[in-house]
Amino acid sequence: MKCxxxxxxxxxxTKMKKLLLACALWYANIDIASTxxxxxxxYELKPISLPGATGAVALDYFAYDPATGKLWVPASNTGSxxxxxxxxxxxxxxxxFKTGEIERRGRKVTLGPTAASxxxxxxxxxxxxxxxxxxxxxxxxxxxxxVPLSTDYSITPDGVLYVAATKxxxxxxxxxxxxxxxxxxxxxxxxxxxxxxxxxxTKTPLDGLGEGYAADNGRGLFTQTSKALGRPSRLMCERRxxxxxxxxxxxxxxxxxxxxPENFFLSRAAITS
Length: 273
Fold this sequence. Notes:
Layout: H1 3-9, H2 13-37, E1 63-65, E2 70-75, E3 80-85, E4 91-94, E5 100-104, E6 107-111, E7 113-118, E8 122-127, E9 132-137, E10 143-148, E11 155-163, E12 168-175, E13 186-191, E14 199-205, E15 210-216, E16 221-226, E17 231-236, E18 258-259, E19 265-266, E20 271-272
Antiparallel strand pairs: 1-2, 2-3, 3-4, 5-6, 7-8, 8-9, 9-10, 11-12, 12-13, 13-14, 15-16, 16-17, 18-19, 19-20
């Protein structure tokens, strides 16, 4: 019996846990075997210098645009976003982003743009330096408008993702200081029906700070983990309803963090089936 068939048939909690663990190990064995048996890859490891970098550069979320063949690299504390050409390795720079001090793990750090996501002819940049979301033309690299993530600037953008199914930009957030952590426990959603002019739309409360994520535009699902709790949330793109602990029929294993029933995934790796 296939894992998915057994899960749909239903079983006891103990049997379910054993089944899920067996399925996870089975999938893992396939991955390990395919990696070991795969032929040696023909690739070249080449360092690329980032303009204006004189020391350590804080790097977080990159984005690749297949339409232009460009890799977008927010180079945070330099106040720039570096754009690398896939074919030539040439680096263009979008500069002028504000940097600022935020509190992180009890100390002050200087950050600027940290996240990029490819939209419809544009690239969305999350800037933790001034708590804004900016729009950049994907071809000309011209800077468009920047909008504040919140009216009181108490939260900054962490992960930024364009959700094509709803023409929205979904943003995980971080507090400017440890005194306003609760304000960051939500998924911010901006309307991107006009790709170059974002409008604040809504927010979905979360149990903790949102972390890793993936969008399944075909099935209208946005999946992410909650950093504080280490467990996944499934957010319906169309309904924007948080199921927080998965669905009511969910069964969870601490080690693997599966959610059920009709589609299941490894939450941290964002593997869907």
